Amino acid sequence: MPVNAALRCANFDERRDKAMALFAEKGFGQVSMRELAAHVGLTAGSLYHHFPSKQDLLYDLIEELYEELQATLDQGRRALARGKPVLASLVAAHWQLHAERPLQFRLAERDLCCLSEGQQARLLVARKRYEAGLLHLIAPKTSLAGERLAATAHVLATLLNQLPGWLHGRGLPEDQSLALMESVLLGGIERTLR
């Protein structure tokens, strides 16, 4: 990649990260385009050159998170192929992803409703695909079906995505936090999937 192109990519990523931090701090709906432009170091007019709209930027940030969540399932599949505990692998992968992208988790949880109906629908498809893959890895032989299966997948995914945020900063060593997450999920799985 030429030096100028690499610099443009780095500047774009830095501006995108600054925009994400502002959205996470104030709330997507509370940030004006003018404030966003000033925060990322652009004029209001040139902001549209970098980001087509505030909504498109938010959509991209949340979509990227769902792509990363889908990648956590690959780690679970690799663990399964090596005969390692799948749940422990998934817990560790989600813990790491949350440590790397806490602001994206916050935006996905809080500001999804600020997107257009079409954007929300596309993200719902991505989330359902992730949830179905997650449940298939954790409980491949479940007898659940229909809405109960979908609800169970949603609850398990929500726990995996929220527990790291609840546990970070609680003073527990990481290994104890991971063990607690695994225990909570295992308890829920055993009771739900009987």
TrEMBL record:
<feature type="domain" description="HTH tetR-type">
    <location>
        <begin position="9"/>
        <end position="69"/>
    </location>
</feature>
<dbReference type="InterPro" id="IPR050109">
    <property type="entry name" value="HTH-type_TetR-like_transc_reg"/>
</dbReference>
<dbReference type="InterPro" id="IPR023772">
    <property type="entry name" value="DNA-bd_HTH_TetR-type_CS"/>
</dbReference>
<keyword id="KW-0804">Transcription</keyword>
<keyword id="KW-0805">Transcription regulation</keyword>
<protein>
    <submittedName>
        <fullName>TetR/AcrR family transcriptional regulator</fullName>
    </submittedName>
</protein>
<dbReference type="InterPro" id="IPR009057">
    <property type="entry name" value="Homeodomain-like_sf"/>
</dbReference>
<feature type="DNA-binding region" description="H-T-H motif">
    <location>
        <begin position="32"/>
        <end position="51"/>
    </location>
</feature>
<keyword id="KW-0238">DNA-binding</keyword>
<dbReference type="InterPro" id="IPR001647">
    <property type="entry name" value="HTH_TetR"/>
</dbReference>
<dbReference type="Pfam" id="PF00440">
    <property type="entry name" value="TetR_N"/>
</dbReference>
